[in-house]
Amino acid sequence: MSWPWLRRLLAADASLSARLRVAETPGSRRRLASLLAHSGDSWYWFAALALVWWLSAASRVFIVQLVIGIVATAAVVVAIKFTVRRRRPEGEWGAFYRRTDPNSFPSGHAARMAMLAVAGFAFGHPWFGLVLLLWAPLVALARVAMGVHYISDVAGGLLIGLGVGLALIPIL
Fold it and tell me: Is 31 inside any structural domain?
């Protein structure tokens, strides 16, 4: 079955994503995008949460809620990635991501950040939720700028993270 409208939509997505790309352009925009793109990495979040756990017994319930959210989000993202199997854009940056996870839809980084923003508002301090709400789209756009995702990957990831975060509120 042929869906010409889908091919046109994906072509427009790839074209817009390519215009936002700075991965091959040396300079401050590339350094900032790289920093933001990595700031959504799960191992950084787990390390930061482990540090807060060690330093503050008062935050432990909140940390457990965030860890459960990160794991639940990852499970949903991986299930969708292995169903959709959309290839990442071609490129050099992010070799680790390309090697360990060649599928781009949805963006796990965007999903994780959106879920964390929801959890920040629901279980943490409002300022924490607000910081993450502002940070999430920056991480998402940085993933496109560094050439490891298309715009639709990060848009889908943000929506999935929002949904997982909202679904976890009554459970946690």
Answer: no
Q: What angle do CA 46, 51, 52 make, to 5 degrees?
A: 100
Nearest alpha carbon to residue 167 among 122, 105, 108, 135: 122
pTM for the whole structure: 0.92
Three-state DSSP state, 65: helix
Which domain range does residue 88 map to?
41-168
CA distance 81 to 120: 26
Catalytic residues: 109, 149
> One digit per residue, pLDDT tens: the chain, 172 residues?
468 888 898 888 999 898 999 988 899 999 999 999 999 999 999 999 999 899 887 788 889 999 999 999 999 999 999 999 999 998 888 788 888 889 999 999 999 999 999 999 998 888 999 999 999 999 999 999 999 999 999 999 999 999 999 999 998 7
